[in-house]
Amino acid sequence: MTQKPTLTDEAPAVRSAPKPPRPPRRLGVRQVLTALRTFVRSQPLGAAALLLICFFVFVAVFAPLVAPYDPVQQFRRDILEPPSGTYLFGTDDLGRDVLSRTIYGAQTSLLIGVVTTGVSLVLGTAIGVVSGYFGRALDVVVQRVMDSVQAIPGIVLLLFIAVILGPSVRNTIIALTVVITPSFNRIARAETLRVRQEPYVEAARATGAHAPRILALHVLPNLLASVLTLGSLIFAGVIIAESALSFLGIGAPPPTPSWGLMLSEGVRYVERAPWLIIVPSIALSIAVFSFNLLGDALRDHLDPRLQRRALDRVTGLWWGRRMLSRLAPSLSRAADKN
Amino acid sequence: MIGYALRRLGFGAVVMFLVTVFVFMIMRLVPGDAVSLQLQDTGVSKAEADAMRAEFGLDDPVWVQLWTWLGDAVQGDLGTSFYSGESVVDLFLARIPVTVQLGLMAMMLGAVLGLVVGVVAAATRGSMVDGAMRLFAVAFLSVPNFVVALLVLTGLAIWFAWSPPIVYTGPAEDFTSWAQQIAIPVIALGTGGMASVARLTRSSMLESLGSDYIRTVRAKGVRERVVIAKHALRNSTIAVLTLLGLELATVLGGTVIIERMFSLPGTGQLIYQAVLDRDYPVVVACTIFYAGLFVITIILIDLLYALVDPRIRSGKALS
Amino acid sequence: MTVPSPPLLEVNDLYVQFPTPTGPVNAVAGVSFTVSAGETVAVVGESGSGKSVSSLALLGLLGSGKISSGSVLLRGDELVGAGREKLRRLRGAEIAMIFQNPMSSLDPLFTIGDQLIEALRVHRPMSRRAARARAVELLREVGLPDPERRVRAYPHELSGGQQQRVMVAIALTCEPALLIADEPTTALDVTVEAQILELLRTMQRDRGTALLLITHDMAVVAEMADRVVVMYAGQVVEHGLVEDVLRDPRNPYTKALIDSIPTPATPRDRPMPAIAGNVPTPAQAPPGCRFHPRCPSVFERCSVDAPRLYQLGETRASRCWLHETEPSGSVAETVEEVHRVG
Amino acid sequence: GGGGGTGGSTDSGAAAPVGAPKPGGTAVLQLPSEITNGLNPLISSDPTLNTLLSGSVYGKLIDIKVGPNVKAWELEPDLAESWEVAKDGKSYTFKLRKDVRWHNIAPVNGRAFVADDVVATFEALKKATRVHQWMIEPVTSIEAPDEHTVVFKLSKPYAPMLDYLAYHFNMILPREGVEGKFDLATQAIGTGPFMLDKHTPDVEWVFKKNPDYYIKGKPYVDVIKRPIMTDIAAVTAALRSGRLDSGTTSDQNVAKQLGEQGLKVAETPGAPVSFFINPKVEPFDDLKVRQAVAQAIDWVGMGENIRGKFNLTSLVRPDTSAAALTRDEVLKLRPYDPENAKKLLAEAGLPNGFSTKLMVQRVDDEDVREAQWMQEDLAKVGIKMELEMVDPATGIDRRRKHDFPMAKALRGVHLPDQVWRDFEKESLENYTSVDDAELYELLAQSRAEQDEDKRNEIYRKMQTRMETEIVQVLYPIQKFDYGITGARVQGLYESPIYHGRRLADMWLNES
Amino acid sequence: MASGPQLADERAAPLFEARDLVKQFRSRRTVVQAVNGVSLKIPRGRTVGLVGESGSGKSTVARLALRLLDPTSGEVSFDGVDLLRASRAEMRALRRRMQIVFQDPLGSLNPRMRVLNAVGEPLSVHGIAKGKDKADRVVELLERVGLSSGDLYKFSHQFSGGQAQRIGIARALATDPDLIVCDEAVSALDVSVQAQVLNLLKELQAELGLSYLFIAHDLNVVRYMADEVCVMYLGEIVERGDGDELFADPRHPYTKMLVSAVPEFAPELADGRGRRSIPRGEPASPSDPPPGCRFHPRCPQAMRRCREEAPAMHRVPTGRAVACHLFDAPAAPADAEREASER
Ligand SMILES: Nc1ncnc2c1ncn2[C@@H]1O[C@H](COP(=O)(O)OP(=O)(O)OP(=O)(O)O)[C@@H](O)[C@H]1O
Ligand SMILES: Nc1ncnc2c1ncn2[C@@H]1O[C@H](COP(=O)(O)OP(=O)(O)OP(=O)(O)O)[C@@H](O)[C@H]1O
Ligand SMILES: [Mg+2]
Ligand SMILES: [Mg+2]
What is the pLDDT, as a whole number, of residue A250? Predict the structure, then answer.
């Protein structure tokens, strides 16, 4: 009654693949397109957000071509002109074209957003991963330092850094990076503690793999999803933070066109020249909105089943209003206990 | 539990010490000092300015300053302002109530609205209501709070010729006036919090709604309303608590713009002005206070967890 | 109990659909079975065969899924398409459920007393005090030691076996006519499993509750059930009295499944009889007979046409083309017709 | 310095009063910032302190006149009824009023004001080296021959003496305060029309009427509240809702808007915009380059577009001295002439311009806008100027360390002599290291010159020299602030200095 | 391949030997005695099975055996090398020769790694093969476990549980190990697939002469796989012996309880119901083990002595060893082979 079991049982799926397929190229156009296609299909909303972001990036990169005027050129006869055919979105209090400033503003704001998020992501993740993976004294020391950076009120750090280095786009980036890095550290560390206990990491250790290899091939790829998601959300927070810094006069120095600066400069004219804040506000909102949506979509897309829990916690905890999501002590603590 | 708490407190102390060291190091790098500022417009000679510096201990090497400060701090003396000569503790304590009121109210507003929005969105997942609520939440996230505050303030003044009372009064003195005064700042600060609470509530609600124990509750025949309000919501509070606790720590440190805008005598203004004035004793003390607050908040969150979740109470890790 | 009483529960040609990113998927495709009052019916099948989905569908607890066709009759009363409120009233009162993983099936934030009291008071007006007293009594009945104290315990303070006892107590609060137990012992150790199975058995015997026992363990079926329904890839492939099916499986799948279970008698020096290949997910169910790619007795027709469920005698049915040509000559009749008869 | 930004007065209403003065009521006047350093005038030079106390709580010997028809700097008696200057300019004799009493607050308890108080005050001031001693530097002795006479003896003639005595710093304190019988830092007991009633830190100051003020019937209002309000949006909203009677903005657009809405707007002369060019930094060591910079910028356009109301000035303010160069004179010395600027640059060997930085210490938003205006103008002649925003502490520090190529700030000086003091060699505020023998010679002459017209002539020469030969410090325009008052506030006149006594003339028309 | 119940092979030195392994996990408040004096020998080419309830310390023994954890005390040696004294380099070299297969087939594969790299990881780590060589070798391995080269570039989520477990086994085979520890390698699989994997493991053993430490909680599976079965209870081995005999004639009261608790699947028995005895009590917690014999609170035959004194391992005539006072026969206390020593 029993059929003789074969060692290599012939499941039809196996049978129909006689030749080994070519290895997928790492970053071929085809791969990117395929990845994009699946993303679009599974996350239409996220794809729309991505499109918007691409639009912003395009506008930022090609600002000189897109913008009707030089963003710092002062049309001194046309101060605070309302929107018209000449100035699509009106002019500001120095007679500069608001549309052009908004377009160039995308450059500054995106630059600050990308670099700040990028650098703090890399830095924070590196610190968190190493600290979380090796644990013990190193972890305790590193985490206390990170805690201390977080425990200093963001505004004090930002003010001090701005005062020491002077306000400039670069220094805004430095200041925000210092403030944000600990949150990436936290999430990366919490995720490392989780991933460290995954059987596949233990399997790699059993194989005799060195720590650097395990970190690079097993730990990092598996926490990237959460880190990237947090990143896309923090990105939005950074743009908002930049406006707050500008409002306090410690952001990008004038006449640099940046949305934050435009908002903080224009806010005095809400009544007389509302276009001064409406235009950058809308740009800011759409950008932030896109990054939020993209974050959500990335989370869903990258990790349909894995890590859902940790991620939801994290993404809910992003910047919110203030400087940081000082997130995940609960996560790290939960992991500590094991 | 006690050992654990002690360990946390120990960490807290380390953190506060590190914060102190950082702040002293940073101050060394900052250009300008309180003496130059105080003596501007006075035609004072350099020698006199240096004498004043010596008086403030500003001419000592930074580690001596740090050591002196620590020595005094251990004896309970956190220093006095370079300017008013008042004790920094008094300065801080006089201003903390406003910040705490503002922070707490904003958080409460954010928490209540956020919970409602989050719960409704989760309960109607995928529907128009859900979509609208999420959109609404993100919209609030993407407008800086000072812009919200300004729009509300200006709008009210233009259309209703109304503005909040100018002079801050405590809630005990004149409740109506206080309420009117604090309303707009609270709204401005609270909306952002609301958006993040809503987000988090929604996602953790969805997480609990999909869990096994909710299935059990439903299988008992419990009404969906009760399922959501009693079981799912309570199980989502851990995550929301984390957020709220940490937001509190940041909201308290981040009310500078709003406090300035509404002339609220809070710590945000104090610390901001102290940095600009290079009033180091005040900066150091405020930072230490905030760091302490941060540490305590985190410990408090832990205790709250234990209150909410019996597993944590008995020392078992979160599931 | 070999004579089937009029069915308490009748599930007829049930289809359950889940939306997935790649389009809707039928996780359950045409499941029919009946449960009579006081009877124990076991549903077995490998992981993903649709056992849980079928049972959750009965009470509208599918979440994102929905019943796309078929009918569920509880004492002749149609449940498919019934209002939420009606289903809610049935849950716990008429049909109760216990689940696979007791650790995660109890709300961690409430004491087990609270959870029992909630179950008691949902369907019957009852004072808290009375409910508490009843809760203690129920805990005692399910054999939880020291129930007066344990009523104030939180789920995590109990062991897995004790938690499952609490689940049983909750399920039995309203004396339901049918208890659905979805793999109640899979997460438990063998020693504890034996205890819980014993508990279920006595509870059922004492109260005359019908039991729909979902499991993937043939041994549990052998221990517990009167009748067995074997599922594969969202379909019922065979059903019948336990003695008949286990002793003489007619469907090749059932046969192969039974063979692949290691027993104390399995010879150690010979390979285990195994079924080649893997259980297909509902989305990739092959055409024709869903088992044909793995079937040792496969022939051409199997990969083309889907076989119907053949009635083999009064209490027995199997889904296989072999029955059409079977010399035994038992009347090949679809189960649907049987239902129409009685 | 930067802190003195709002220069002259903070509250002012220019329109002629409606109806007759009537007593009573509470006036709410914006105070833009909190004091930083305690209330002791011997220690603090905080402008906010002067706003609060000078003239209103503490009287001075001499004051300046304000009122509907006063246009220029004109002295009037306050605690001194009359005064006399010796021919040689080395002795000043003041006859004091006899009807003045100190506020009725312990430990002074409303005793009569006597010459001894003046002696005590100025002796203390001479010792208070850190702050204002420089104003009375040549004074060698202060004597009180009788209860109501005070004689100042000077080492040399010192023409600015009277101006300085009228200046807001020189409040007269009771001897008890000077001697520490009460704490000058927390208490203020003066002779002025108002008494300090209450202070809630960071919130507000409350003053109440001094019932024993020497001018009978004044002050009119019972209470003055000075809530601390920094944000212009909040001030605007409060003015609109009537919660605030008076506020100040530096923003012409806001002022215009509020004016259109029925509030009274008074243009109040403010501090000079100060622009420093550091000759120690190349290429500014070349006078031609400095001249080019000065001529490349359209100062008039800047004033018109950004400040609205402004005065084109050289260093001396028109509202405090008749010596100030007029607009036309200034334009002649410092024309807007980008072509010439380019030529000058070419002559200096920089035909293609150069890159530099402007350190901007922001006091109000207009500062930043002006900096951008200057930036654009300089760009047109090929000077690429980057803006470097600094906070006040950094600003003052770097200016004193001469650590900037160009700097823009608001230097809160009022009186001509005060202006020149900055450029003395040893002065800490000599940011651009002015070192000009001829200028110093003129300064010495001016101090010795008793005749006002002659002295003004010297001041003119000095301004001309600064504009043409030195060109290291420019106060290119004097900004105006906009005092905005509600309809009920009457009789509140602008003043170039912090001048609290004018509040005694203010009354509220409750309608 | 098959062999009789030749236990404790004296002929050759065992491939793997553990002596008196103790592992305690200390947390702030409690000490979990996960493993408490376990001794094991795995002869070359043989399978030693380990059964026990959840939490009895099976996985901990597995980790100790591979030195993924350091024992609190005890000795582990592999092919005569003392693992605990091995240098880093030695240890790395030894890791080539011992591999592990985990319970959760999907969890033990990095979700972000293609099969090629997952299976090839040991090859890369030990510098055995690179590039094309590696791919060839991986294909070979995949074919050996019943997969094909078509799967080379897939990710783990594209496989079913059974296939994923095959990948795990392929990875374990990559370095030609001598010992594979299977920690519940089939527990998560459906019976039909479980049978496939069991067959595969046996087949590989026959072909490659592998030794297995085979851990499971299903007695039937362990019996089928192992030459010698060890029954663990609360960190201790309570009985060991040939699987068939253990089943047919359990000696230790715990083994008896375990065997009788297994629901019997016997289609040929018309009515076997209710025949079983229902086990008493529940396992105690390893953080608070009972004194004396750890099983005594649940033991139907407990005596006073059991409460006070921990039993030693006694050899019983059938070639088995039992840790129970009942076997402390007056006949031969001297014969008692003290394999496990209690503290
Ligand atoms: N929410 C859902 N969305 C999509 N598919 C689902 C969902 N729930 C279940 N399914 C699919 O339905 C099929 C049947 O699942 P079901 O849980 O009924 O299996 P089961 O027989 O109970 O298996 P197990 O023994 O693992 O519990 C599975 O293939 C599963 O993937
Ligand atoms: N890293 C650890 N820290 C603390 N306790 C641990 C750790 N690992 C295991 N334990 C504890 O040691 C005991 C034995 O665990 P182990 O995993 O070895 O049991 P097991 O027999 O494999 O159980 P299962 O059948 O559930 O896998 C358990 O009580 C467990 O909680
Ligand atoms: Mg199931
Ligand atoms: Mg285990």
Answer: 82
Mention every residue, 6+ apart, whose C-beta is less than 8 A from residue D61. Answer: D78, D79, D80, D83, D94, D96, D118, D150, D165, D166, D170, D172
- Burial status of residue D145 (CB atoms within 10 A of its CB: 0-12, 13-18, 19 or more): exposed
At residue E36, φ and ψ (nearest 5 deg) are -135, 80
Q: Which residues make beta-bridge pairs with D355?
A: D384
Q: Across the strands, what pairs with C7?
A: C36
ipTM score of complex: 0.80
Pick among C150, C220, C221, C278 to test the E interface (most E CBs inside 10 A): C278
Quick check: A76 and D372 CB within 8 A? no
Spatial distance between the Cα atoms of D221 and D21, rounded to a whole number of angstroms: 10
Angle at A67 between CA A65 and CA A69, to 5 degrees: 110
Ligand 2 neighbour E225 (Cβ under 6 A): no
CATH homologous superfamily of domain B96-277? MetI-like (1.10.3720.10)
Identify whether the C-beta of residue C27 lies closer than 8 Å to the C-beta of residue C77: no
CB of E286 shorter than 6 A to ligand 2: yes
Does residue E198 lie within any of the structural domains? no
Assess contact for C308 and C334: CB atoms under 8 A.
Answer: yes
Chains B and D touch (3+ CB pairs under 8 A): yes
pLDDT tens figures, E220-274: 899 899 999 999 998 899 999 988 888 888 888 898 888 888 877 665 554 545 5
How large is the average pLDDT for residues C310-319? 86
Of E191, E193, E223, which has the smallest distance from its Cβ to C264's Cβ? Answer: E223
pLDDT tens column, C190-202: 888 888 888 888 8
Residue C184 CB less than 6 A away from ligand 1 = no
| Domain contains C315 | yes
Tokens for C199, please give them.
Answer: 């508990």
Residue pairs spanning C and E at CB distance below 8 A: 137
* pLDDT 10s digits, B148-168: 888 888 888 888 888 888 888
Length of chain C equals 342
For B10-29, the DSSP string reads HHHHHHHHHHHHHHHHHHHH
R_g of chain B computed on alpha carbons: 24
**Domain residue limits at E322:** 248-342
Report the nearest atom of ligand 1 relative to the CA of C51. Answer: 21
Residue positions counted in chain D: 511
Q: What residues of chain C lie within 8 A of the CB of A11, using their CB?
A: 276-278, 293-294
Cα of C212 from ligand 3 centre, angstroms: 13
- Identify which ligand lies nearest to the alpha carbon of C281: 1
pLDDT of residue E28: 66
Q: How far apart are CA E237 and CA E245, in angstroms?
A: 17
Q: Which atom of ligand 2 is nearest to the CA of E56?
A: 21
Sorted by sequence, the CB contacts under 8 Å of residue C337 that are 6+ apart come out as C311
Chains that touch E (3 or more CB pairs under 8 A): A, B, C
How far apart, in whole angstroms, are the C-alpha atoms of residue B123 and residue A311?
20
Record the tokens describing residue B7, joined without a space: 């360990």
- Both tokens of residue D477? 């325009």
Whole-number Å distance, alpha carbon E59 to ligand 2 midpoint, is: 7
Tokens (6 digits) for A227: 């880190």
What separation in Å is there between the alpha carbon of C234 and the centre of ligand 1? 9
Domain total in chain E:
2
Total domains in chain C come to 2
Both tokens of residue D9? 């007065």
- The CA distance from E286 to the nearest CA of chain B, in Å, is 15
d(CA A117, CA A184): 9
**Cα C38 from Cα C212, distance rounded (Å):** 10
Q: Please tell us whether the domain made up of A48-302 is placed in CATH 3.30.1380.20.
A: no
Q: End of a domain among E152, E176, E200?
A: E176
